[in-house]
Amino acid sequence: MKDYIDAAAFKEMILCADAALHSNIQAINDLNVFPVPDGDTGTNMGLTISNAAVELRKQGFGSVSAAADCVSNAMLRGARGNSGVILSLLFRGISKRLKGLHTVGAIEFTGAMADGVAAAYKAVMKPAEGTILTVSRLASQAAAKAAEDGASLEDSLQEGIRAGEEALADTVNQNPVLKKAGVIDAGGKGYMIILSAMLASLLGEMTSAEMGKAVIPEPAAAKKDVKWREYFTFTFDTVYVVRKAAPDVDLEPLRKYLGSIGDSLVISDDDEIFKVHVHTDMPGNALNESQKYGTLELAKIENMRTQAEQEEAGKEVQNTEVLEQIERELEGMKSGEKPEDKAAPAEKAAPTPEEESDDYVAEPEKEYGVVAVCAGEGVAGLFRELGADQIVTGGQTMNPSTADILRAVQHTPARTVFVFPNNKNIIMAAEQCSGLTEKKIIVMPTRTIPQGISALLNFTPGEDEDDVPVESLIGAMGEAMGNVHTAMVTYAARDSDFDGHAIHAGEYLALLDGSLIGSFTNTKTLFKELSWAIDDFHPDNITIYYGEDVTESEANAAAETIIGNFPDADVVVVNGGQPVYYYMISAE
User: Fold this and answer.
1) With 0-12 CB in 10 A as exposed, 13-18 as middle and 19+ as buried, what is 252?
2) What is the pLDDT of residues 363-382, one digit of tens each?
3) 64-78 vs 81-98: helix axis angle to the nearest 10?
4) When comparing pLDDT for 329 and 296, which is higher?
5) 53-57, 110-114, 396-400, 554-558: segment of lowest average pLDDT
6) In whole angstroms, what is the distance from residue 323 CA to residue 557 CA?
7) 277 and 82 Cβ atoms separated by less than 8 Å
8) End-to-end CA distance of the chain
9) In angstroms, rounded to a whole number, what is the distance separating the alpha carbons of residues 490 and 583?
10) pLDDT (tens digit, 9 = 90+) per residue, 55-73?
């Protein structure tokens, strides 16, 4: 039985909570009876805590205080929706109580839980019972009482969870909206998942990796048909971030003003910024008043009534992501450039009939040559720039034949030809070329385009190619290939169940080194999930190759997500123009 926890234990507790919450996001979302204005509760809480998990994985900590401070700051900046902001406040209060402590016991930790609840209640203008606030308050009170009576940290948390579960079950009776829908509070459920996972970690019952597989069953009660328009008091869901004019700026006057023009008000802050969430009919007034306290940095305003009408009609709900589509359409409407004004690309010299022949064999002009298999003009151009003599068009869904590869080998003016298949399904076809030509063929077993590019970047035969043994070239390129991790983003062609993932046709699929990360309905979530997976490799260089179905602005938006998760990495965006894969991402 542990009497105290250190920084490593606290870190693992949060990582366990993150993994458990993500395994149960859909169960939480299915409880969410008010899904449109603030987004799904499970998703918002998941994105909030995951921001902390990402930061925790980047470093070690010498004290619980330092780890808690990291969690608090990351959650504040990553908080999504009302539920995410409240969750961040619960942990901000914990951080303040644990400041300066290297280890903590039952009294300190349960006291920190209570401080977190106080911080959350203080930030919410009109706290409502039957919510995450109620559940967290009663859980922390029971845990603190047990600690005061001499219980260990483990037993104190167990008592808090018991009380929290009772409070959660009662939320259906406390909140009229929940009672009408017949479900318990989604935010409270998310909080209890977090608390239970932290205890499981503390007891050594499960690691963060194992916790990700522990799915709490969905509630049996089904949602009832509720017309949400009748519950709206105000129209606009307004969220924004302001950089403070001074660290000690007093926000209480702003809190009172915003409370007078709206509801569902939550204000969270640290020494540098404050974040506001409010429902109001006058978002402009809220923004203008807030700018008296600092500089506006980010804002999101959505019409909840319109969204509710779209939801009830079964239509796609419009939100701020629609702005990206509008931006793309406006870019396409920009005038002043006519097709005939563009300079025509220089035409390549037409091959001679002999060179077009399948029987043509180029006379060797050098010792080493290169053949690369790829699809997409941008990718092909990059391989040419790196020294490829011949490009074989092919890849996923369009594997070239041995004859296609052999033809390219024969047309390469070199005695020894390196072949880069760049796809696991093409390696064997390339290997079959040996023995079919007098040229020496060396197949580098590149399984992805990024592996091929990295290998070719390390292909340095020198001016006098005879001075560099072929074994040295193979070794250098093989080492480079081994340092590359490749992520692919594509789509599901059919419904299936793969690696335990239920996949539906048309969903986005994310793969990392050939393993399925998951299927997604939006790229923002996908890139966050993918970033978490890539983070394990601590990449210094990330290259994003975007495909023919992706615009430059979409690719740059994806890059911003990657950059946000890897601020110290060198991130480059390249127009690959490849089919099938929306994105190919190289992490080294």
Assistant:
1) exposed
2) 999 999 999 999 888 899 98
3) 160
4) 296
5) 396-400
6) 12
7) yes
8) 42
9) 7
10) 999 888 999 999 999 999 8
